[in-house]
TrEMBL record:
Family of the protein in this entry: Belongs to the ATPase epsilon chain family.
Protein name, per record: ATP synthase epsilon chain
Location of the ATP synthase F1 complex delta/epsilon subunit N-terminal domain: 19-98
Native organism: Hoeflea halophila
Pfam families per the UniProt record, alphabetical: ATP-synt_DE_N (PF02823)
InterPro entries membership: ATP_synth_F1_dsu/esu, ATP_synth_F1_dsu/esu_N, ATPsynth_dsu/esu_N
Subunit structure: F-type ATPases have 2 components, CF(1) - the catalytic core - and CF(0) - the membrane proton channel. CF(1) has five subunits: alpha(3), beta(3), gamma(1), delta(1), epsilon(1). CF(0) has three main subunits: a, b and c.
Domain of life: Bacteria
Length: 149
């Protein structure tokens, strides 16, 4: 009986633990904060990072990163590829390009989609065509997720 309340308290504390998160693009540091949770668009699917996460390095596909700060505030950022370095005490996402969802430039996203369509059309090998099509599919999904018609 005495062990049960301690176990429950440990689980509650682990869930509430915060860790350092940084979102960096070539242009600037977009966010450096103490957070309790980060949802990343990994190449193999979305993954949630919390404090004490096992060391992991993963490639990031175009998508939305959702961050919950230690104060409970939720922020969303669009990333256009990159990679994340996850350690038990923190996570750094190095994005090829990133912007807060609230700052999305519809014209920029439309241009990226058009460029991706042209890359598919211009691809000369099956491997290049497949890679270009995957990127176009990711951008199309992202566009639908953040800019509903």
């Amino acid at each position: 009986m005495r062990g049960a309340p301690e176990q429950h308290c440990d689980k509650v504390n682990v869930m509430a633990d915060s860790f350092n998160f940084e979102l960096v693009s070539p242009e600037r540091l977009l966010l450096s904060a103490s957070v309790t949770e980060v949802v990343l668009p990994g190449m193999d699917g979305e993954m949630t990072v919390m404090a004490h996460h096992a060391p992991t390095m993963t490639t990031i596909k175009p998508g939305v990163v959702t961050v919950v700060t230690a104060e409970g505030k939720s922020d969303r950022f669009v990333v256009f590829g990159g990679f994340a370095d996850i350690l038990p005490e923190g996570c750094t996402l190095l994005a090829e390009s990133a912007v807060a969802v609230s700052d999305i430039d519809r014209d920029d996203l439309a241009q990226r989609l058009q460029d991706a369509r042209e890359d598919v059309a211009d691809a000369t090998t099956d491997a290049d065509k497949q890679k270009a099509q995957e990127y176009l599919d990711q951008l199309t999904t992202l566009n639908g997720a953040i800019l509903p018609a």
